[in-house]
Design a protein that fits this description.
By secondary structure, this protein is of the alpha/beta class. It is 41% helix and 21% strand. The protein contains three helices and five strands; from the N terminus they run E-H-E-H-E-H-E-E. It has helices at residues 20-40, 56-71, 90-102; strands spanning 8-14, 43-50, 77-80, 106-109, 113-115. The chain has a five-stranded mixed sheet, with helices on both faces. Strand 1 (8-14), helix 1 (20-40) and strand 2 (43-50) form a beta-alpha-beta unit. The longest helix is centred in the N-terminal third of the chain and has 21 residues, at 20-40. The two termini are 20 Å apart. 25% of the residues are buried.
Length: 123
């Protein structure tokens, strides 16, 4: 949990589905959308990663690499436009949220806010 007043340090992952000739413009718009949200919600953008025109297999590889970086303390969370940009379906979205929490991070989306499973593990 971050202290009150301290910025949440997040990686941003841009992911749009578009033709090669329009993907860069769509990513610029998505980044603007995310930056506005970050500014309004006390979030520091550590680094921006881009999907480009890559498929879901590469998105999953990128996401897993971000989990390692979260676990290593390079940031405290991942900031996205929405979960649909990195997930294939609802099950995949919940799995990704759980993986981020297991890595010690938070996942925040502009459209859905701070995603939390609110699960207490026995132990």
């Amino acid at each position: 949990m971050r202290k009150k007043g301290r910025k949440l340090r997040c990686f941003v992952y841009l992911s749009t589905q578009a033709e090669e000739k329009t993907v860069e413009e769509k990513e610029k718009k998505q980044l603007r959308y995310i930056r506005e949200y970050a500014k309004a919600h006390n979030i520091e953008i550590v680094k921006v990663y881009r999907r480009g025109i890559l498929g879901q297999y590469e998105v999953n590889r990128h996401f897993n690499a971000l989990l390692v970086k979260l676990h290593n303390g390079e940031a405290e969370g991942i900031l996205l436009a929405n979960m649909g940009t990195v997930s294939t379906d609802e099950i995949d979205a919940y799995c990704k949220v759980g993986k981020v929490h297991a890595a010690g991070g938070q996942i925040v989306t502009v459209d859905e806010g701070n995603l939390d499973l609110k699960i207490k593990m026995a132990g």
